[in-house]
Design goal:
Six copies of one chain form a homohexamer.
Chain A: E1 2-6, H1 12-25, E2 31-35, E3 40-41, H2 47-66, E4 71-74, H3 82-88, E5 93-95, H4 96-105, E6 111-114, H5 120-130, E7 137-141, H6 147-152, H7 154-170, E8 177-179, H8 188-195, E9 199-201, H9 202-215, E10 234-235
Parallel strand pairs in A: 1-2, 1-4, 4-5, 6-7, 6-8, 8-9
Protein name (chains A, B, C, D, E, F): Hydantoin racemase
Pfam families (chains A, B, C, D, E, F): Asp_Glu_race
EC number (chains A, B, C, D, E, F): 5.1.99.5
């Protein structure tokens, strides 16, 4: 099967890391197609960045359907554009935040999310509430590092993650840690060893869930909420988006 | 004061109607600047449409700050891009959905939203929950008409709204009706007469709230969640968005 | 238009302060009628005080309807008697707590309420939950000062408010502060300067919302919950309340 | 022990009925003191009525403490003034609504409240939510009869209660019925026979809970929320309320 | 009347203590029958222990119905098997956790539970949420002691309870303390004296509620959720459970 | 890898059906070990049945750890004993109810559960709430058929499921159907064809999630809630359960 992993930001080095994580998790016979959109921000750390990354994500979904993609993973911990992506294709679309939370819920009673800059916290609170996971997520801990800081100085990134992860375990009594950024996949194993609790990276969780769903032949319900969008005119820079498969 | 009312879709006839409603509500001395973005869909009836309307909305915010705008109204009943808009400017930004719900809450104990196509229902449920208004909104009723159907055949639109509004009052025991689409402003008065309960159009509610907030000199908190977005590179069709005022 | 601002306690010095705040916020052409009831406690710091203040508030509503009042503001941060007041008149009635929370919600993602004595905390928690604002109010901070302490020693009041406000910002990560007592209006501006986050006084917020609602010609829904009370006999000290306008 | 059952309205015939129910439930050695306040409305069917009944209720609490009362029951299904009453005395104060819900929760998984006029519904929804009982109360059903209609025409009252009770069982799948008015106590037994599900009258439930609490020597926590009210001046018709025991 | 108090664990010394507490609370004429099951764990400190205690509890219910029992109390602070017990008999069945929370709710606005080992915390959080008491329970505090540690070294138990109880009052602002283990009944009075807030033991609360319910002749609703279990075959060690009274 | 699928009831014909479903879903290399416990009820349709099935389930977990099992699936739609099972082993344990809800959440916005007898409804409501899925599950529909009725007369079972499934889609606007009983797996495909919406059987969903989790090497967090149970004495029929691996 072919799983397209879309890194919604346009930093290709980060996409490489995500691809590496996804491939290490995929089973034999699963083809991983990791991409960044051709438009959008180099990192996502605000509602502004998130919304401006979504058109690029949707373009990759549309292209994917022509590439014979069986399932999609949206690899940014805000699950940007998830619901729109589900409208646009019948293939399953899985966000790494939802995947990490559902998987963690099957292995730990209470857990924490450790993520990038403080301003992200409200976004994640709304996301967690929207998934009905407010009673499982015992804390959301931010760091002073931006998304690209983690790319540029992984040693520093690891240090900061370990520090906040430890606080989550010791002060908040988290029983597992969820990595709140797709670029943190590389730290998962070391962090798990250091903290001695399960550490969940959403990229690998989403890839495995995508395999599971495709194996079962399940596709997105097109009955009402996720029906194909109505065909209509788009103008300006958005004109190409009038072209919907359905 | 100058209030910029942004119709997130690109149907200028509809923007005219919104402008008319906004101006009729504005007090003397309030300048209404009603616009449609230069990019995006002609109507918004899905997550797909909504996300693809947001870049255009944000562009209008950015332009607005250079035009001396005092407050913004986002005139689509999904409040598209609201949080990102608040990041982008220090001026107040008000969505018509939130405005209608807050205003209705001060005048009615329980109310219903009457809106366009059935597929919109889940979007509105999430929106209502996000504003903490789940206990006030007693039902969300949809119609078989699209956004542009209401534009094209207002007589039919009025008929359908009256029908669903009446059901909301009689079957769901709604004590007020909220119009779930910016293009419905024109029906508010007649509907109120026909149903004999308060009918709230979000456009006029938002304009009045904007005046209120500007009068008090209140602006968006730039402390954390709504800080200006970090400056960064954007590529492709999104390149222009790298240019943030702050 | 004529807005009657009712200070539910009977401390006229405090009513003067509230009147001053209301007038400073009102636009030209808005007449502010600030009153204290002729019966009730000199301050409100318990359920006991609150309930015993309500008959006086309702009397002022009843009188107001004969005075040609267009809208009412209940100027105590428990919104005492709000729902009963809405039953008693068709004119809009706005509580300062709800007004401050709705306005703050349009300008800040998370905020704190700073208020008087510790015993008030449970009352405010219930109030916040009732308005569906539990996810926005990040903390409720009390002070050792009573309502009248703030009147008697404003310097001390300012000091204590600044202290708790700072803690709300620094420890709880509040992005705005709401003043949890009508008598605190005078501190709003200085506090805003000192804390560098928006500070919301409910009195001015409610006055502006009242203007907005009256401008739009909106009145309370009299369909069911807020119908005029059934006419009936009242005995003893409550006999005068049998006289309902409707 | 001495239990004072306060009927918050001033209809003495109804108080007699409540007294009868309370005495039939009280065990030997429990003295029931059933009273109506000396001020207030003859029935309670709105927020207006409720708030104007509370001063009378509080006066009865104050008097009760001088009469050697061991526990109080507030016998109106809105639990009017409950929290203020708890501030005013160290003796336990129990509302009939809370008592009926807690007792029903120990005997039935899901239940309905059947009550008087439609306008009461929102009041009861807020009450139920405040007690955390929203998941247990499967429906609130109103009748076209007022409180005094039930007094005047008990045959009609019984008929209407049976009708709505049956609908609650058959349509809403209620497994027990709660009588949403203190004046309905007399119908409980017949209704239980007719509907073949447990029917709970709050008056008797509250009396039994009061006995239970007094037996254990438990009293209201005076630590914070329910501390005695601060001593202060009251003016006008409320002057007598300055006199607090504590 | 005959109340059977079932200590779900098989430590008879603890059952003696529970019997003592129950008898001290029961009024004259109430016969207390305190038992431990003939199968199950010596203490309950995990989901594992809890589930393995339930068959023994249910056997005691079944036997009780043949012994003429009027009401049952399940005396372990997880209310193990409560819903199944209600299916198995028409007599009321009351859990000590629910009883303590409902009673405390009538006497204190906010309270804390102090209990045994840290691992219990999630179990209690789910229990509290299930009863709709999440807004009343301000904290759940655990101790390093196991159930049997409290039996073996009561002096140490008292010390630890006092310490955590004090923290609950001072740091969490609890206005009452609930003892989160049936074996803690003996500490209630001393703790109440030491902390100067009401301390609730669930055993005595449940016994009094059982008396109240039996006095009123109320029994479990057998309409739907708590119908007698369908008769069916059980195999292996569970074979005896095929024998249901109904 | 070896996945042990435990049918908590003791009807071996049903276990065969579950085994068939599990094997059809498992990928090459996954060994499915489908078992029924050696003790317990032949079907689960009440809290009573559920609790009496759990010891048998736990015995199978304990045995499984000695059999080299990599992950467990509990194949009854109440997820009986799930949390205890997680305490007992470090291997992942997945319930079919949680699996079906998490998977459905990734493919449909709103869905319904169709299940057996009406008495099950409250149990499922609590289950759904416990997983935070209350906003996704739009209705729970029951049928007049028992678990074994579906085994005995599959044609009738299919008819009834199709009928309630259709109502869920047409009346409740469900966008997917979840089969609320492990024995319904065989109907999934035909039902999906007939209703034209995704139909989720929890058995296959759980097997795929188990594969996913094992592939990633993730195991249950043993930090706090799911620590191994404390070693202790068990008496009577429960004596064998003292023997815990850890």
């Amino acid at each position: 099967m072919k799983i397209k992993v879309i890194n919604p930001n346009t930093t290709w080095e980060m996409t490489k890391g995500i691809e590496h994580a996804a491939k290490s998790a995929a089973r034999q016979g699963t083809e991983i197609l990791a991409v960044s959109p051709e438009m959008g921000p180099v990192s996502i750390e605000s509602y502004y960045d998130e919304y401006l990354a979504i058109p690029g994500v949707l373009e990759e979904i549309r292209k994917g359907d022509r590439e014979g993609v069986d399932a999609y993973v949206i690899a940014c911990y805000g699950d940007p554009g998830l619901h729109a992506a589900r409208e646009l294709t019948h293939a399953p679309v899985i966000g790494i935040a939802e995947a990490s939370m559902y998987m963690a819920s099957m292995l730990a009673a209470r857990f924490s999310i450790v993520t990038v800059l403080p301003r992200i916290k409200t976004m994640l609170e709304e996301l967690v509430a929207g998934y009905g996971m407010g009673h499982r997520v015992i804390s959301i801990r931010t760091t002073p590092l931006s998304v690209l800081d983690f790319e540029k100085d992984p040693a520093k990134g690891m240090e900061v993650l370990a520090q906040e992860g430890r606080r989550a375990v010791e002060e908040d009594h988290a029983e597992a840690i969820l990595l709140g950024c797709a670029g943190m996949a590389e730290f998962a194993d070391r962090l798990e060893q250091e903290l001695q609790v399960p550490v969940f990276d959403g990229v690998v969780a989403a890839v495995k869930f995508a395999e599971a769903v495709v194996d079962l032949g399940k596709t997105t319900s097109k009955l009402k909420t996720y029906k194909y969008p109505e065909k209509k005119k788009f103008i300006g820079a958005m004109s190409p988006f009038a072209d919907i498969n359905s």
